[in-house]
C-alpha cells in the first residue's frame, strides 16, 4: 500500500538521522505532491508514524520528529480536553483538511474508535475545537475607553486568535454564525461598543456583521497562504518573482496598474496582512465615526 511505503521512507530517514528529533517532517500536502498520492493517503502515513510515537504535531511548527525521551506506548486515561487539544494541534500544523478522527486517535496512541466516546464525529469535534480556540483570549471585566477604542481591541483580539489558529476563518460563512459560547463573548464586546452609535437593532446587527467580516475576511488568507506554501514550496516572494513576467504582461494597457508596479519595484514592497488588517480597521472606524457623527 502506498501509505506504508511513504511511512517506511520517513521511518528510514528518522532512523538514519536525516530527520533528527524536533525536525519538521514534510507536510501532508508536500508528501502528497512528492509521491503523487491523495492527501488522505499521505495523512494516513503520518498518522501511522504518530501511532508509533515517531512523530507528533506541534502548533505553528507542523509535524515534527519525537525525541526518544518522549517516545513510548499509547496514552491512557484519554479526556475530551486531550482530544480537542490534539485536534487543534493537527489543524494548526496541517490545516482542517488533514484532520480526521482516525488521525487524532493515531496521534494520541489510542484505538481508532476511542474518540467516539467523547464526540459523535468530526463535525462536533471541530465545533469544540473552535469554541476552545475562541476562548483563549477575553476582555477586561470593566471596559474602558470609548466605542472606537473598545472595537479596536475587539478586532485585534479576534485577529490574534485567527493568527494563532488560521483554520478558524474557514469554518463557515458569515450568514451561518457558529453557536459557540466563547465566540459570543467576542460578539458581546463588539456589540456593546457599536451600540454607543445609537442605532436601531437591525443596523446594529449589520454593523457587527460588517466588523466581523473585515476580521474574518482578512484571516481567510492566513491558511490559504499556508496551503499555497505547502503545495508549491514557494514563499510569497518566490512566487511573485516566478510570476513577474505574467504580471508585467497583465499590466500592459492599464497605465495606473503599470505605474504602481513600476513604483513598487523601485521602492520595494512587502504585502503584510497584519498591516492591511490595521489599515482596514482604521478605515472602517473612520467611516463609522463620520456616518454616525461620533
Automatic annotation (TrEMBL):
PROSITE patterns on file: HTH_GNTR, HTH_TETR_2
One Pfam family linked to the record: TetR_C_1
Span of domain HTH gntR-type: 1-68
All copies of domain HTH tetR-type, residue ranges: 77-137
Keywords of the record: DNA-binding, Transcription, Transcription regulation
GO molecular function, one term: DNA binding
Domain of life the protein comes from: Bacteria
Alphabetical GO biological process terms: negative regulation of DNA-templated transcription
DNA-binding region extent: 100-119
PANTHER family recorded: GNTR-FAMILY TRANSCRIPTIONAL REGULATOR, MANNOSYL-D-GLYCERATE TRANSPORT/METABOLISM SYSTEM REPRESSOR MNGR-RELATED
The name this protein goes by in its record: GntR family transcriptional regulator
Originating organism: Amycolatopsis vastitatis
